[in-house]
Amino acid sequence: MSNLIRVTYRKYDGSLHWNGVMRRLGEDDFGVWLGWGAGLTMRRGYEPPVTFPEPHVSLYPRDKWWTASFYTAPRRTEIYCDITTVPEWPTEDEVTMVDLDLDVIRRREDRQAIILDEDEFLEHQVRYAYPPNVIEAARNSADALLPAVGGDAEPFQSAYFEWLSKVEQYEGDPAA
Length: 176
Known about the structure:
globular; 3 helices
């Protein structure tokens, strides 16, 4: 099993969205945890890489319609959940899912959780012809995550701190 995992988000039409390489940290009851210290780069499609200056970890649940990233300070967003199809592992060193536009975030400053990109979700329902079951699963996931992220349910309360402590040692770009 590889320690480096290819992370591939796609849009509903199959086009490449966010993608890059992260380190496998481990697995618990919440799912598979990947992470990296300062300097991780990811790409949106084939655009130039974007560098993340703060360490962060990402959670890929085995049976949920979302993924979550947890960031260290000084980043203003503490938690960023992408509403996606259930993450799939086509190989042991790749995780892939379809980004369904909606995001649930928690800001660090006031710990307020909000849903983002409602307009994009509505637009892409038409553009990509999301089936009704996908629309319902995405909407239900966002609505259920909002109080969980804002109300400190696990893994959004403290479970991610242990995983963040493991990434500080990894710096630079793992894809380099």
